Amino acid sequence: MYSYQLLVGDPSFVQSQFLRKFSTATISKRSKSLASLTGDIPLAYDDQFEKPVWPWKGILVNIPTKKRHDGLCCTGESGPQLKDELIRRGFNPIRVRTVWDCFGHSGTGIVEFNRDWNGLNDALLFKKAYQEDGHGKKDWLSGGGAAYSIFYAWLANTDDYYRAANYIGEYLGKMGDLKSISRFAEEEARKDHKLVVRLNVISENIQSRLRMLEEKFSKTSIKLKCETEEKDKILHGYNQGGLNPIAM
Fold it and tell me: In angstroms, what is the C-alpha Rg of the chain?
């Protein structure tokens, strides 16, 4: 009983239990994220022409612009303003960057999402919402934009990435990379495996220390027990024969 109480109160024991729970919870959370996305990821994304840009990015076009008073440059909503507007619409971007060219605000923007499974889920929901609303990439390329104030948006992919002739392609080439969902899943699986191995090593080291502490405590308990028994014998002899325990 005393050994158990000592170990439970030891910081190493608490840390060991935390590491076990943390590793299990982390892997479980990532697995659930992957499972929730399985039904939403088109198989076409594994094709070389449909690889999305990673970290996950969306493209926003048809942003209203207007010329400044001097008539030399266009202005429009800033990145933070566009981000707030997208959040109000129910999306979850981490940043929006407006694209500027030699004429000023180009009326386009890059929507950035988290680089993990949650970010991919947010990016796919972003793409799906505009696509189902008739304001996706195909709608824009087929002559969209009649309504000046309505955004068109899609998930940046291979086609956008290799458009080096425009500012969007140039930005995507500098700040991102093409990555299929299957490749991303493999990389995340390797990261999870390395994390589990590292946490297991830490846990084993802590368990080894706990065993040493338990062994030390056991020896101390035995020694204390022997000393207590010896003391009891001396006191018993004193009580029986009237001997002075100090003299003994």
Answer: 33
Q: Which residue has the tokens 């994390």?
A: 195
Q: Can you tell me the distance from the alpha carbon of 163 to that of 151, in angstroms, rounded to the nearest whole number?
A: 21
- The answer to whether 106 and 51 have CB atoms below 8 angstroms apart is no
Mean pLDDT of 169-186: 90
pTM of this structure: 0.65
Can you read off the two tokens belonging to residue 158? 């291979």
- Measured between alpha carbons, how far is 156 from 134 in angstroms, rounded to an integer? 17
Compute the distance between CA of residue 42 and CA of residue 52 in angstroms, rounded to an integer. Answer: 11
DSSP code at position 48: T
What are the DSSP E strand ranges found in the chain?
53-54, 57-61, 65-67, 74-76, 95-101, 104-112, 152-155, 177-178
> Which phi and psi (to 5°) does residue 156 adopt?
-60, 130
Q: Residue 27's closest CA among 207, 201, 191, 205?
A: 191
Residue 98 to residues 39, 41, 54, 211, Cα–Cα distance (Å): 32, 27, 18, 59
Distance of alpha carbon 33 from alpha carbon 41, whole angstroms: 12
Determine which of 40-44, 75-79, 180-184, 244-248 has the lowest per-residue pLDDT on average.
40-44
The dihedrals phi and psi of 165, each to the nearest 5 degrees, come to: -75, -15
Amino acid identity, position 70: D
User: Which residues are 97's β-sheet partners?
Assistant: 110
pLDDT higher than threshold 80 for residue 102: yes
